[in-house]
């Protein structure tokens, strides 16, 4: 290990492993949960060791550390489920951003057995984005039919949170510039 080339190689390998850990979703998720629970546990443990045995502070420390360990256990127990929900949401969000609203809805339906509340939220978001897209298409049709004032009103009803907002705003600018 005295050879400088070996040290550089080991250092590069360690950096590569760390980068891979942070890019791999399960590892990131695991590290986040471990740090969120582990750091308070370590600090509490260090404080607890200095307390007189079986005193009030010592007993409270034991109880809080037990709660932290229990919380960590519960988080680890639900870890695979949370990870699966996160992956499905990511895939659905990609489909939603691509304008594939029905496929995104189908993807979000896969979350229902795992987390109904999250599935309902994501499905409502997909339906809302689909509605905004349909509103945008209706405005384009109205403009093509010559009903530009109605088209303007419809385009102005699309909120900034809609994925099609930039397209709608651009089309509205073109309409106003063309008249």
In brief, what are we looking at here?
This protein is an all-alpha fold. Helix content is 82%, strand content 0%.
Q: Which parts are unreliable, with pLDDT below 50 for 5 consecutive residues or more?
A: none
Q: What string gives the helices and strands in order? A: HHHHHHHH
Strand content: under 5%
The proportion of residues forming helix, as a percent range, comes to over 70%
Let me know the number of strands.
Answer: 0
User: What's the domain count?
Assistant: 2
Write the layout of secondary structure elements.
Layout: H1 4-23, H2 25-49, H3 56-77, H4 79-97, H5 101-109, H6 116-144, H7 148-156, H8 165-178
Helix pairs in contact: 2-3, 4-5, 5-6, 6-7, 6-8, 7-8
Features:
179 residues; mainly alpha; 2 domains; 82% helix; elongated
What does the model show?
- The chain has two domains: 1-77; 80-179, no CATH class.
- By secondary structure, the chain is mostly helical.
- The protein is built from eight helices and no strands.
- The longest helix is centred in the last third of the chain and has 29 residues, at 116-144.
